[in-house]
Each structure stands twice: as structure tokens, then as C-alpha cells.
């Protein structure tokens, strides 16, 4: 069974998804890492983020996987720290907006889950709407943008940015992700929306596990 967890940056997807996966004893997949890796591949190949054809060529035969402790790897190289660098964050929405890139990445993600028996907690921005539209449990996490920015300020990718700068970055990312023509960021029609603004991680995880127990 796939548990699909979607939502904008800073809503708590990664922390919650890892905890739910641990509780269920199934793999966890951070699909956002795929788009960051696609962006890294493009930048290292000298491909402009807006060049869809170039991005697709750069991604041909790219090997994406994860270490046992969840670090993303590219051709066996641990790139967890590199993926949170400011240049990746600035370009990822552009690269991930290309329909050709999204189609290639979605195919990779489906193969990854299938290779693990079809059971996983999968987090991202279009899991319940595009990647696994038949997922039996779909959750959309959201939160106040200023709270999301304060959460993100603790991450390395914040790179010393002020709260107002982080808010502006998140609002820009939200706009790009929700307004793109292909796989826009939005809750699936049958997703349960959870506002995490006033909730602890354990409470959010408990609500999701309750949903799993109902199917």
C-alpha cells in the first residue's frame, strides 16, 4: 500500500513521512530529492535550468537511489548535502516544471516503489494527484507560510537568509509549483488536508496512522 503525503515546503512532510514509514515498517521515498538531483545533474552538465531538452538528455541513464539511512545518491555518490545548496533551491522549480522531466522522474519513482514490493510512504507535491493517484491513503500537509519559513530557517539551505527573505522565497516557490500547467501543487480531491501549524509531529503522525488503519 502507498501512503501519499503532499504539501508545500516547510509543512513537515519529510519528518512526518519518515515517522509514518518507520511506524508501518515500510520504505520512505522523498520524491523532492529526485527533482533536486535532476537539477544537480543539469547544473553539473552545464545545462541551463530552462532547457527542457538539455535536462532530459542529461538525465538519460542517471542512477538514483538512497543509502540505508535515507541519503540520496547519484551514481553511488552521496549528494544529500549538495542537494540543499542555494543554487539547487533556486533552480529546482524551473527544472521540475518541464513536463518531459516530470514524466521521466515519475517513471523513476514508480520503479523505485515497485522494486520494493509496492509498499511505501511517498512524499512530494503531486503524489496523490499524479505519481500514485490510486494510493489508498492521501494526505496534504499545509501550514502558515511564516511558520514554514521559521522551520526552514533551521536548515542548511537557508544559508543565513532572513525570515522575510525565506517567506518571499517560499511564496515564490508556492506560486511556481501551484501555477505550473503540469502536475501543479494541489491537494488530491480525495486527500485529507492537515494544517500542521498548531500540531506536533506525533499528533500529525497519529492522524495519518489512524487513516491507514481505516483502509
Compact description:
The protein has about 220 residues and is α/β, with parallel strands linked by helices. The protein has helices at about 15-25, 30-45, 50-60, 85-95, 100-115, 125-130, 145-150, 165-180, 200-215; strands at about 1-5, 30, 65, 70-75, 75-80, 120-125, 135-140, 190-195.
Number of helices: 9
**CATH-wise, what's the superfamily?**
P-loop containing nucleotide triphosphate hydrolases
Class per helix and strand makeup: alpha/beta
Distance between the termini: 10 Å
Return the CATH architecture.
Answer: 3-Layer(aba) Sandwich
| Mean of pLDDT | 91
Main sheet properties: 5 strands, parallel
List keywords for this structure.
Rossmann fold; 49% helix; 8 strands; alpha/beta; 215 residues
Structure description:
The protein is of the alpha/beta class and 215 residues long. It has a single domain (2-214), classed as P-loop containing nucleotide triphosphate hydrolases (Rossmann fold), CATH 3.40.50. The chain contains nine helices and eight strands. The protein has a five-stranded parallel sheet with strand order 2-6-1-7-8. It is globular and about 50 Å long.
Would you spell out the secondary-structure blueprint of this structure?
Blueprint: E1 2-6, H1 13-24, E2 28-30, H2 31-44, H3 52-59, E3 64-66, E4 72-74, E5 77-78, H4 86-96, H5 99-114, E6 120-124, H6 127-131, E7 137-142, H7 145-152, H8 163-179, E8 192-195, H9 201-214
Parallel strand pairs: 1-6, 1-7, 2-6, 7-8
Antiparallel strand pairs: 3-4, 4-5
Helix pairs in contact: 1-9, 2-3, 2-4, 2-5, 3-5, 7-8
Amino acid at each position: 500500500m502507498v501512503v501519499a503525503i503532499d504539501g508545500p515546503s516547510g509543512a513537515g512532510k519529510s519528518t512526518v513521512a519518515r515517522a509514518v514509514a518507520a511506524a508501518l515498517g515500510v520504505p520512505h521515498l522523498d520524491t523532492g530529492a529526485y527533482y533536486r538531483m535532476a537539477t544537480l545533474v543539469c547544473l553539473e552538465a552545464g545545462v541551463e535550468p530552462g532547457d527542457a531538452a538539455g535536462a532530459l538528455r542529461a538525465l538519460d541513464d542517471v542512477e538514483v537511489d538512497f543509502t540505508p539511512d535515507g541519503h540520496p545518491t547519484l551514481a553511488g555518490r552521496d549528494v544529500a548535502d549538495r542537494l540543499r545548496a542555494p543554487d539547487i533551491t533556486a533552480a529546482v522549480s524551473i527544472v521540475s516544471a518541464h513536463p518531459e522531466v516530470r514524466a521521466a522522474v515519475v517513471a523513476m519513482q514508480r520503479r523505485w516503489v515497485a522494486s520494493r514490493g509496492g509498499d511505501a510512504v511517498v512524499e512530494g507535491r503531486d503524489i496523490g494527484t499524479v505519481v500514485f493517484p490510486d494510493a489508498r491513503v492521501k494526505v496534504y500537509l499545509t501550514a502558515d507560510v511564516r511558520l514554514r519559513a521559521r522551520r526552514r530557517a533551521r536548515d542548511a539551505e537557508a544559508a543565513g537568509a532572513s525570515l522575510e527573505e525565506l517567506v518571499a522565497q517560499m511564496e515564490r516557490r508556492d506560486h511556481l509549483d501551484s501555477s505550473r500547467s503540469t502536475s501543479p501543487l494541489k491537494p488530491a480531491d480525495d486527500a485529507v488536508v492537515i494544517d500542521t501549524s498548531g500540531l506536533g509531529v506525533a499528533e500529525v503522525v497519529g492522524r495519518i496512522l489512524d487513516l491507514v488503519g481505516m483502509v
